[in-house]
Amino acid sequence: MAIVPHRRLIGVLGGMGPAATVDFLNKIVLSTPAGTDQEHVPIILHGVPQIPDRSSAIESGSDAPFLPMLAGLRMLERNGADVIAIPCNTAHHWYDRLARTTAIDIIHIADAVRDELVSRKSLGAVALLATRGTIASGLYQTRLAGTVDTVVVPDEHVQQLVDASIAAIKAGDERAGGAAGEAAVLALIESGVEFIILACTELPMALRHSQLTAGVIDSTVALARACVIASMAVSRAPLARAG
Amino acid sequence: MAIVPHRRLIGVLGGMGPAATVDFLNKIVLSTPAGTDQEHVPIILHGVPQIPDRSSAIESGSDAPFLPMLAGLRMLERNGADVIAIPCNTAHHWYDRLARTTAIDIIHIADAVRDELVSRKSLGAVALLATRGTIASGLYQTRLAGTVDTVVVPDEHVQQLVDASIAAIKAGDERAGGAAGEAAVLALIESGVEFIILACTELPMALRHSQLTAGVIDSTVALARACVIASMAVSRAPLARAG
Questions:
Q1: Is B227 in the active site?
Q2: CB neighbours of B100 closer than 8 A, spacing ≥ 6?
Q3: Fewer Cβ neighbours under 10 Å: the N or C end of chain A?
Q4: Which pTM does this prediction carry?
Q5: Interface predicted TM-score (ipTM) of this complex, two decimals
C-alpha cells in the first residue's frame, strides 16, 4: 500500500466571492508539488456567498458580515481544520475579532503578501488595488508597516476603475473587469510605484489575460502558497507526553 | 436590506482529484445566473484527496475508498447539506452503498449526463471515455439503458490513451493530457458514434482547449447544472403543520 504523506487540513472560509474562491482553490492545486491525487492538500470549504457584502458594510459602519463569518469559522473548526484561510481581502477587516475566538491559526492574507514582498526585496513604495472597505480598514497599511516605505492608495478616479473591475467580475463579466482593471494598473505604474498589490481576490481574475504582470503581486497566489507551505510542514502535534 | 434569495446548500464530496473538483466548482459558478455574490449557490466541500485511488481499487477488488468517502458524506450531512454531489465518476461505483446510508439526495453523475442526452435527443450509440474502473463497474451502462441504443466502450488501444490523459492531468501536465485525450476522441469520432461522454472529471480539463467539441458531453458540466437547478429550486421543506 502506498504511504499517504502527512498533510494538515486547510479550512477555507470562502464564498466571498464564489469565483474568487474557485480561483484560490485552483492556485492551491497549482502551487502544490504533487504527482498523484493523494499528495495534494486536503481542504474543507465553507463557501456560503450569502454573507453580506464586506466593503459596503465597512463603509456604512455595519457589522453584518461578522456573525455569518463566525458561523463559517466554527464549522471549519468543528470539522478539524488545522489552519484557516480567508480568500477575501476585505473580510480581513474582521480578522482580529475572528482570530481571538479560535486557537487555530488563521493565515492573514496581508502577511502572505508581506512575505512575498520580502522575498522580492521590496525597497520603495507599493500601491494597493483594493475595495474601499479594505483601504478604509487600513489592514494592509498596518501589516506592511516596517516592510515597505510607503503604501500608495489610488486617487478617486483610479478607485472608481477598481470598483468597476471588481463589480464586473462578481457579475461574471471578465471583459469589462479586465478593461477597468488594466486601466487602474496602468495609472499606478505611471505614478512610479515599485510593486502593485492586487489586494482584492476578484482583481487577479480581472487581470488573468493581462500583459501587465511585472511588479504585480497577486494576493490570492500569496495566500495559496502560504496554505500549501502550512499544509505540507511537519505536523505541529506535540510528542506523546512522558509518563 | 437586500432580500437574500433562497438557495439550498450543496455538499460536495470532492478531492477526487483536486483539480477536477476545482473545475467542477468553477462550472457551478459559471452555470449560475447571478449578478451579485449573494445570488450564488452555497457550497460546503469535503476535499480530501487522500482517499485511495478509485479505479485501481475497483480493478483489484478492493473496498479501500468506501470508508473514507463515507466519512466525507457524514461530514457533509452533519453540516447541513441539502443535496450532495460527487465530482468523480469512478467514485460512483460506491454510489448505491453511500446513498443507502443517508436520507439526503445524492445526484448521480450518470443521471445528470442522461438528462443532457435526453435534452439533445440522442437516438443512436454513445461512447464512454472513462477510467477502467468506471467501465468495469457498468454504472453508465446501467443508468443509460433505456435512454440510448448502445454504449460503446473503447478498445484497448484507445483506453490506453484515456488512461494516459487522466494520469497526465492528475500530475498537472495539461499538454500531454490534451494530446492523449484528443487522440482518444478522434478515434471514437471515426468509429461513428453520435455522442462522446467525457465520463471522468479529469477529461474535460485535458480537452479544455480542444476544437473537438461537437457531440462531446462533459459530465462535470452536467453535474454542475444539476446542482444549480437543485440549489435554486423552491425549498422542499414542508409547510407548517396545521393544528
A1: no
A2: none
A3: C
A4: 0.92
A5: 0.90
